[in-house]
C-alpha cells in the first residue's frame, strides 16, 4: 500500500481525495497497490468530513512521516507552497502539484531538488486542468521536434470570449455573468489580464525546449479591451477571437506571446468553446495535433493530480533527464516579431491611405458597417512598427493580432 | 546502441527509417542510446536507396539475429504479418506495428505471446495515425473510468464527407476526387464501407474495457448511401454528418457501432475536417477530452511507430498487466439500441401521421424544401423498430442516426 498526503483541502485537494475514493479499485489495479491518503494538511479543521480524523496543521507531521511517499500540493500561492514542497522533496518524498504559479516561478529549482533526492516532481494539473498535455509532451510525442504551441489555456477568458462572440455581449456584462456563475474570481485580473495563461505557456515552452522559459519575459496582453465591435468584424471575416498563448520554439530562442488573436473559423481551435481548453501543437513529423478538455474544475484537475500520483507510485525514482534544465531559454525581442494585425479605425476611409503609407498595403474592411469607423488588416509587420503607428494615430481604436 | 529491423519498406516502413534518420539525435537523447536500423525485410530490392545494403528477403535473417531487439511490422495484411510477428515475439524481440487489421484480428494472441516472452507488443500507429490515442489510454487517463468513445477514425471518409458537406458535391464525385488525390484507394471498400473504422473502434474498445472486443460483432455501416440531400437537411438543423465510431463501455458489455451520424455543429468534433481524425472520450472524472491529429500519412504514422520503438527500447520487459485479456467483451444486441433517427421521406406530409403511428412523435422538417419529400426526426427508438418501419415503408429514402 502506498501512503500519500494532501496539502491544502480546498477545491482541488478535496477532489483528489474524492477521485482516490471513487475510483480506488481501478487505481489500485493500475498501480499494483492501493493508495491511501494518510494525512491532509490544512489550517482549518473539517468536522463531519471524511478527512476529519486525518487533518494535521503542521507540515512536519508530513515531512517526518516516513510512511508517506507522495505528497500532493494543492494549496496554491508561491511562497509557502514552494517552502513546503522543498521540505517534502528533501525528505525523499515525490511531490505532485496543480499549482502553476509555483511551477512557473520555481519549477526549475524544484525539478533539480527532485533529481538530487531521487524522487519525482510532477505537475500535470498545472496546465490544461484535466487535459494530459504535459504527459503527452513528456512521453508520447517523443519522436518529434515540436515547433509551435498554439493554445487556449485559460477557461475563464474563453468562456467570456465565447459569450461575447456568440451573443454580442460586452466585456463588463460577460465578466459579471462569469463571476455570478463562479467561472471568474471576484478579482479577475489573474485570468483577464492573461497572467494565468502566460504562466502556463511558460511551463509548456520550458518542457518543449528543455530549458527554463521565464514567464516574466513573455509579452502578455489580456482581454479587457476586446469589444463587441471587434467580434462583429471578426465574424465578417470568418474569424474567431480567443485568448491564445503562442510559442514558436527554435534551437536557440523562442518567440512567445499571450494575447487575444483572430484565427479562422475553420481552425480546429474554433470548436473550443466556453470554459474548455485546448492545446494545438505543430511538430516536424506528426504535423498538427490537438489536445482538448476541461481546463479547470474540481474533478478534472483532481484526476490529473491523481494520474501523477499513480506515476509517482509506479515509478518513484528520479528520471534520467530533468524535464527542463537550469539553462534559461531566451525569448526573442517582441518588438521585432512580424505578423498581421487587424485594427479598427475611427474616421472615413481617406485615412486608410495615410495609414497605408506607414504600414504598407492594407485590406480595408467596410462590413460590419459601424458608423464613423472602418477596419483594416495589415500585411506582415513588426510589432514595433504597429505600436509606433498606434501611438501616432489616436484614430486607431483597437488592434487585434491575426494568427498565421 | 539499440538495433532494430523494419519489416515492409512501403510508405510507413520507409517513413520509419526517415524519422529515425532525421530526428536521430533527439531520439538518442530521449532513449539514452542511439537506434540503428540494422535490417529491412522486403520482397523487393531498393537499389540507390539508403537501405539498399541492409535489405534482406528472409524473415529468419531477423528472427535469428540476436542483436536485433525491436522489430517494426509495417507490411500490412493479416496472415503473413501475424506469422512473422509471432516468430519475432517468440525469438524474444519486441514488436511495434501500424497494422490495425492484424491487431484487430490477432491482437489478443500477440499480446499474450509478448507477455509470455517478456517483451513488448505495441501498436500506437494502428489507430489514429499520429494521434497518440493508445498511449493516452494506456498511460495518461489512468485515474478515470472511460465511459464513451466517439471518434472520427477514418481520414478518407472524413475527407469525402467534409467535401460533400462544404461543397454539396455527391458521393461519386468526391470519391473520384479523393482517389485522384491519393486519399482513397482504387478499391475504396475498406474505408467507405466503414470496415477500417470498425477495426480501429474494436482496438480502442478492447483497450478501454480491458477485454477482447471482436470487430466482427460491431454493427458497421459505411458512407456510400449518404447524399447531398442528407447534407442539406443536416445544415438546416445546424448539424454535421460524419462517419463515427461510437462505443459506450459498461462493466459487462459495450454498445458499439460504426455509422454516419449527425451531430451538432457546436460539438468539438465539428472542427475535425478533411483527412484529420479525432477521438472524443467521456470519462467519469475528467469529463470530456479530445485528441486530434493526422489519422494517416507517411510521417505522422511513422512518428507513432517510432514513439513505440522508443518505448520498447526504454522499457523492454513485459508490463505487469496485458493491455487486454483473452476474455471476450460482449457487444450488446444492436437491434435493441435506442437512439433518435433522421429520415428523408418521399411523399407529402400526410405520410408523417402514418409514420408517427409506428414511430411515435416526430419532428417534421420542411427545409431545405426539396420537391416531393420531407424530413423527419424521431424520438428515441429501438434500432429494430426503425429497421422494421424502413422495411415496411419504401417511402423512406434514407436514414441517418442522430448522436446523443
Question: What fraction of residues of chain A sit in β-strands?
Answer: 25-35%
CATH class of the largest domain in chain A: Alpha Beta
Uncertain ranges of chain A:
none
- Going by CATH, what is the homologous superfamily of the largest domain in chain A? Dihydrodipicolinate Reductase, domain 2
Whole-number average pLDDT of chain A? 95
Q: How far apart, in Å, are the first and last alpha carbons of chain A?
A: 51 Å
Percent helix of chain A: 25-40%
- CATH fold descriptor of the largest domain in chain A: Dihydrodipicolinate Reductase, domain 2
Quaternary organisation: homodimer
3D architecture notes:
Two copies of one chain form a homodimer. Chain A has three domains: 2-129 and 299-314, NAD(P)-binding Rossmann-like Domain (Rossmann fold, 3-Layer(aba) Sandwich), CATH 3.40.50.720; 144-293, Dihydrodipicolinate Reductase, domain 2 (2-Layer Sandwich); 334-402, Alpha-Beta Plaits. Chain A starts with a strand and ends with a strand. By secondary structure, chain A is an alpha/beta fold. In chain A, the strands form two sheets. In chain A, strands 7, 8, 9, 10, 11, 12, 13, 14, 15, 16 and 17 form an eleven-stranded mixed beta sheet that branches. The first copy, chain A, has a six-stranded parallel beta sheet with strand order 3-2-1-4-5-6, with helices on both faces. In chain A, 37% of the residues lie in helices and 25% in strands. Chain A is built from 14 helices and 17 strands. Chains A and B meet through helix 2, helix 6, strand 11, strand 12 and helix 12 of A and helix 2, helix 6, strand 12, strand 13 and helix 12 of B. Strand 12 (287-294) of chain A pairs antiparallel with strand 13 (287-294) of chain B.
Amino acid at each position: 500500500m502506498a501512503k500519500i498526503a494532501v496539502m491544502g483541502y480546498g477545491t482541488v485537494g478535496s477532489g483528489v481525495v474524492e477521485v482516490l475514493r471513487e475510483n480506488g479499485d481501478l487505481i489500485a489495479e493500475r498501480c499494483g497497490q492501493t493508495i491511501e491518503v494518510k494525512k491532509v494538511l490544512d489550517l482549518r479543521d473539517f468536522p463531519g468530513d471524511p478527512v476529519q480524523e486525518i487533518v494535521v496543521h503542521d507540515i512536519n507531521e508530513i515531512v517526518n512521516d516516513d510512511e508517506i511517499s507522495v505528497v500532493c500540493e494543492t494549496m496554491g500561492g508561491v511562497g509557502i507552497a514552494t517552502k513546503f514542497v522543498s521540505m517534502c522533496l528533501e525528505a525523499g518524498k515525490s511531490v505532485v502539484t496543480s499549482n502553476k504559479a509555483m511551477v512557473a516561478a520555481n519549477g526549475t529549482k524544484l525539478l533539480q531538488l527532485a533529481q538530487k533526492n531521487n524522487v519525482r516532481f510532477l505537475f500535470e494539473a498545472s496546465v490544461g486542468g484535466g487535459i494530459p498535455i504535459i504527459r503527452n509532451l513528456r512521453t508520447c510525442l517523443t519522436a518529434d521536434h515540436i515547433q509551435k504551441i498554439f493554445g487556449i489555456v485559460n477557461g475563464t477568458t474563453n468562456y467570456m470570449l465565447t459569450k461575447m462572440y456568440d451573443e454580442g455581449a460586452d466585456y463588463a456584462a460577460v465578466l459579471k455573468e462569469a463571476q455570478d456563475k463562479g467561472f471568474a474570481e471576484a478579482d479577475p485580473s489573474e485570468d483577464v489580464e492573461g497572467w494565468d495563461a502566460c504562466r502556463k505557456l511558460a511551463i509548456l515552452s520550458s518542457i518543449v525546449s528543455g530549458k527554463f522559459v521565464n514567464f516574466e519575459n513573455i509579452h502578455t496582453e489580456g482581454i479587457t479591451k476586446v469589444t463587441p465591435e471587434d467580434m462583429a468584424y471578426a465574424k465578417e471575416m470568418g474569424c474567431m477571437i480567443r485568448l491564445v498563448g503562442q510559442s514558436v520554439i527554435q534551437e536557440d530562442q523562442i518567440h512567445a506571446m499571450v494575447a487575444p488573436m483572430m484565427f479562422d473559423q475553420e481552425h480546429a481551435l474554433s470548436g473550443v468553446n466556453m470554459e474548455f481548453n485546448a492545446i494545438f501543437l505543430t511538430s516536424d513529423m506528426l504535423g498538427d495535433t490537438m489536445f482538448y478538455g476541461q481546463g479547470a474544475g474540481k474533478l478534472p484537475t483532481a484526476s490529473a493530480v491523481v494520474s501523477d500520483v499513480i506515476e509517482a507510485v509506479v515509478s518513484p525514482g528520479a528520471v534520467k533527464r530533468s524535464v527542463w534544465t537550469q539553462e534559461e531559454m531566451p525569448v526573442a525581442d517582441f518588438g521585432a516579431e512580424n505578423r498581421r494585425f487587424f485594427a479598427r479605425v475611427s474616421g472615413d476611409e481617406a485615412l486608410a491611405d495615410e495609414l497605408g503609407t506607414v504600414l504598407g498595403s492594407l485590406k480595408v474592411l467596410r462590413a460590419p458597417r459601424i458608423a464613423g469607423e472602418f477596419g483594416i488588416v495589415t500585411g506582415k509587420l513588426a510589432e514595433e512598427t504597429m505600436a509606433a503607428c498606434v501611438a501616432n494615430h489616436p484614430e486607431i481604436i483597437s488592434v487585434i493580432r491575426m494568427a498565421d
